[in-house]
Amino acid sequence: MATTEVRQQGGAENGQEEWYPPSEAVVQGAHIQDWDKLAREADADFVGFWEARAKELVDWYEPWTKVLDDSNKPFFKWFVGAKTNIVHNAIDRHLHTHRRNKLALIWEGENGESRTFSYHALNREVSKFASVLKALGVRKGDRVTIYMGRVPELPIAMLACAKIGAVHSVVYGGFSTEALHGRIEDSQSRVVVTCDGAFLNGKIVELKRIADEAIKRAPIVEHVVVFRRTGHEVPMEEGRDMWWHDLMALPIADPRCKTEVMDAEDPLYLLYTSGTTGRPKAIIHTHGGYQVGVATTLQYVFDVCDEDRYWCAADPGWVTGHSYIVYGPLILGATSFMYEGAPTYPYPDRWWAMVERYGINILYTAPTAIRGLMRFGEAWPNRRDLSSLRLLGSVGEPINPEAWRWYYTNIGKSRCPVMDTWWQTETGMFMITPTPSVPLKPGSGTRPFFGIEADIVDEHGKSVGVGEEGFLVLRRPWPAMLRGIYGDPERYVSQYWSKYKDAYLTGDSAKRDKDGYFWIIGRVDDVLKVSGYRLGTAEVESALVSHPAVAEAAVIGLPHEIKGQGIHAFVLLRQGFTPSAELAEELRAHVGSEMGPIAKPEEVKFVDSLPKTRSGKIMRRVLKARAQGLPEGDISTLEE
Ligand code: WTA
């Protein structure tokens, strides 16, 4: 059942008896001193636990009448009847405190330029852009697609949408035409916000050109707002395209803009992610429960303090960026750092130079980035002063103990605990994670967060024993949980809640050790994790099939030293086409331009047939086993 590749690199077999006790210096003054006590309390009354956090960490315009409504499972509702707006908590309320002049955001461009925003300044920019959106006809509930590079205007655009009750749909700037087009169409966005381009690795990513291609096929789009980042020439379509700076200079960019009063359950954003089959689906998150979930987890796990400088190195276009670059840190009134470019530009010490330059205290990144930087050796981090660091974090895929140790020793100087946070786009917040007071084992996210009940079960839903592999499920609702799939409530039920009664199916397999620590093994479905990015086999396959030479395609993930998984494609050509190295290269490039560079297969193999079940489903499992020289398993359903 489980993907074999993660097991090979994963920690489940390796690190079980390797303990790292909590650092006293870090635990001192941490929010959670007595983990066991709080875990017991939250376990006995998880609804009460979340209610207390909702009162303590965020403000509400009007209180709830009920914390959790589970009368229509699995369509759970949190903080029923409450009125709020996440922007009130992320910005507005700080303007009346000492945080008004505090830095909310520090940004560094790949070219070395730097910009900062106090909470006051952030509010001004967000309010102005919110007024611009209103002037463009954006109303409460309307969807706005945001397709930008890593610039401060990306969070500003997100917050501006949320402020007026519009629903943002951020599309990762590394995606390309087809991926963007599908997301604009599905969300029916009339307004798209983009950039002329983005700087990455010393080159320009042509965001506007890609957006133009996508929008050409999406007649719903009426307005395109373009932020000028690179200054290179881009075509602007009369009547449709407008420059960000032009709009922001007009009287319509009114800095006085009311924050819309939202129902706790009103949607905040859509975020597309890959599922088991078919097209990516839009996960819905809300204003109310989500803010409680992200604020609580960020405070307890990363222990963000007022004087901290916190850096989540993810891209804002993925859920990690939404919850832990934008919303979580701002709700806590923290100072968040954001970097535009590649970790190795111009040299492999770029990240460490920025930790030194800005005095970063908390660094949160992905195993793939750690492995990528690790290969350049210790000399690069050693040249820099990393003594400001207090806590480290990891997310996106299982971290192999070797990378964990390198990170802990060479970046954290054996002082900084590594918070390995397991969660998903769907969960909105950390679900299995240590807090700074928890003893660590490299490769394990330790135990479920307070109030979360995770279990590992077999095919029939029965809990498996210690050391046995099974499906990871979540047995209780949590406030930041997805509220469904946009436009497809049935898929929400069938994908997450139908395999087992009363349990949320994560799509991951895992084991639990004798200490109750969880070890994530990997996805059991057709979801790939390439450099921590979540992609679906189906998306890559449909990009391949859209090429005129391709009749059929199957895609699998195989172990990759840096990326975790690399994409391998098996292609059946149409009549009249012959396999060649040039054609393989052309197909790789085709996937890159349709979906984005991250989806480019490592290799394209031409085959005469694909292993299929009698009902015609491609057996990727068999392809994978063959590619790795492993036993093919049960092939009784394989067609002749
Ligand atoms: C994987 C990313 C092991 C997992 C926040 C999950 C992890 C999927 C970890 C969700 C971790 C994420 N250890 N595996 N710490 N964090 N995963 O939606 O397979 O992009 O199901 O959300 O990433 O990916 P997504």
Strand order of the largest sheet: 5-4-17-16-18-19-20
Structural class: alpha/beta
Give the number of helices.
20
Radius of gyration, CA atoms, in whole angstroms:
24 Å
What fraction of the residues are assigned to beta strands by DSSP?
15-25%
Low-confidence stretches: 1-12
Q: Quick one: biggest sheet?
A: 7 strands, mixed
What does the average pLDDT come to? 95
The distinct ligands, each listed once, are:
5'-O-[(S)-ethoxy(hydroxy)phosphoryl]adenosine
Distance between the termini: 23 Å
Outline: globular
- Work out the number of β strands: 29
Determine the fraction of residues in helical runs and give it as a percent range. 25-40%
Describe the structure.
By secondary structure, the protein is of the alpha/beta class. It is 30% helix and 22% strand. It has 20 helices and 29 strands. The strands form 8 sheets. It has a 7-stranded mixed sheet with strand order 5-4-17-16-18-19-20, sandwiched between helices. The chain has a 7-stranded mixed sheet with strand order 12-11-8-6-7-14-15, sandwiched between helices. Helix 8 (177-187) packs across helix 9 (207-216), helix 14 crosses helix 16 (401-411) and helix 18 (537-545) packs across helix 19. The longest helix has 17 residues, at 119-135. The two termini are 23 Å apart. Residues 1-12 have low confidence and may be disordered. The chain binds 5'-O-[(S)-ethoxy(hydroxy)phosphoryl]adenosine. Residues 273, 318-320, 394-398, 420-425, 445, 506-508, 520, 522-523, 529, 534 line the site of 5'-O-[(S)-ethoxy(hydroxy)phosphoryl]adenosine.
